[in-house]
Amino acid sequence: QVQLVESGGGLVQPGGSLRLSCAASGFTFSRAAMSWYRQGPGKERELVAIISSGGGSARYADSVKGRFTISRDNAKTTVYLQMNSLKPEDTAVYYCNVVGGDWGQGTQVTVSS
C-alpha cells in the first residue's frame, strides 16, 4: 500500500523559508519520479517541481524557479521541497505525488505578515 506523508508546512512571513518533506513507503521509491503540486485558494492544482528517480534531473514551474529546490534521499525514501523567498501567492496546500500515481494528503503553507 502506497503511503505519502507530507510535513513541514506552516505559517511564515513573506521572504521566509520552509522545507517540506514527504516520507514515502509501499513502493520502490528509487525507481519513481516524484513531484510536488500545490493548490491555492480558488485555484486549480498546479505542478511546482518534479525530480527524476535518481535525483539527477529536476524542473520547476516558472513561478518558483530560483526560489524552490526539489531534492530526494533514496536511502530515506523521502522527497523534499526547500522553499525560499516565499511570497503570499505561494500560499497553498502542497501535495507530494508519485508521478503517474498516488498522492499525499497535503500540507498547508501560509505566507502572510
The value of Rg in angstroms is 13 Å
Secondary-structure element string: EEEEEEEEEE
Helix percent band: under 10%
Instruction: Estimate the mean pLDDT confidence.
Output: 96
In the sheet with the most strands, the strands line up as 2-10-9-4-5-6
Distance between the termini: 40 Å
Summing up helix and strand content along with how strands pair, one would put the structural category as mainly beta
Count of DSSP-assigned helices: 0
The largest β sheet comes out as: 6 strands, mixed
Content of β-strand: over 45%
Q: Low-confidence parts, pLDDT < 50 over ≥5 residues?
A: none
Any idea what the shape is? globular
Number of strands: 10
Give the structure's gist in a few sentences.
It is built from no helices and 10 strands. The chain is mostly beta strands.
Plain-language structure description:
- With 113 residues, the chain is mostly beta strands.
- The chain has strands at residues 3-7, 10-12, 18-25, 34-39, 46-51, 58-60, 68-73, 78-83, 92-98, 107-111.
- The strands form 2 sheets. A 6-stranded mixed β-sheet has the order 2-10-9-4-5-6, with no helix packed on it. A 4-stranded antiparallel β-sheet has the order 1-3-8-7, with no helix packed on it.
- A hairpin with a 6-residue loop joins β4 and β5 (46-51).
- The termini are far apart.
- The mean pLDDT is 96.
Can you lay out the helices and strands and say which pair or pack?
Layout: E1 3-7, E2 10-12, E3 18-25, E4 34-39, E5 46-51, E6 58-60, E7 68-73, E8 78-83, E9 92-98, E10 107-111
